[in-house]
Amino acid sequence: MDYDAPAPRGLEPVDANAQRILARLLTASFPGDDEIARQVAMARSRVIDEDGSLELSVGGSAPPALVDRRIPVEAEAEDIDGMTFHVLLHVVDGYINELEVYREDLLPMQSPIQPDALRVIVL
Fold first, then answer.
1. pTM score, two decimals?
2. Domain ranges of the chain
3. CB burial class (10 A; 0-12, 13-18, 19+) of residue 93?
4. 3-class state of residue 8 by DSSP
5. Would strands 95-103 and 54-58 be described as parallel, antiparallel, or unpaired?
């Protein structure tokens, strides 16, 4: 994908709660975090599943992030029923690609994610 091109159609600005989730993930220090923060600032998204996972796309001239792994940072917390869920930031070829959300029991999320409750983990 040409990252100097506009974001693909069907993608919208990242909503406020997803912005807060991404900001929470970026409270951690990891290789490429500065570049990812710049990408997040111009990202567009589309919901891709019932848990609220997002496809992410970066248009414009954001620099690539030199991350050590595809998922450089993730977070976890408990859903309203006590089941642990995870939020993973995927980076492909140096650019944010997906914000994946899943519960450990693979059932749908019961409540919206509260960014302040997330425990951030650098992998």
1. 0.89
2. 12-122
3. exposed
4. coil
5. antiparallel
